[in-house]
Write a structure and sequence with these properties.
single chain; alpha+beta; 30% helix
Length: 84
């Protein structure tokens, strides 16, 4: 898994791209507290966060994929990642 930093808030996650349609994201911190988009959703929805994905993080990942910095994984299953 590759370490990715959100271009908007700076939060780091681990990412692995398995196909054009499948991207695995492993949050390193609690998403509700680490991501401003998740936190905003929680405050506007009676204290409950339900956001399927952070759009700004998704854009950051897509930018890295388009630039070739993240490629398709050769693995057929997720493996634990580590930060360097």
């Amino acid at each position: 898994m590759e370490s990715v930093r959100c271009n908007s808030c700076g939060n780091r996650v681990l990412v692995e791209k398995y196909s054009e349609a499948h991207t695995s994201i492993q949050w390193l911190d609690d998403a509700d507290s680490a991501c401003p988009e998740f936190a905003e959703s929680r405050t506007t929805q009676d204290g409950r966060a339900w956001v399927p994905s952070c759009h700004k993080l998704r854009e950051s990942i897509d930018d890295l994929i388009l630039s070739g910095q993240i490629g398709l994984s050769l693995r057929s299953y997720p493996v634990p990642g580590r930060l360097e």
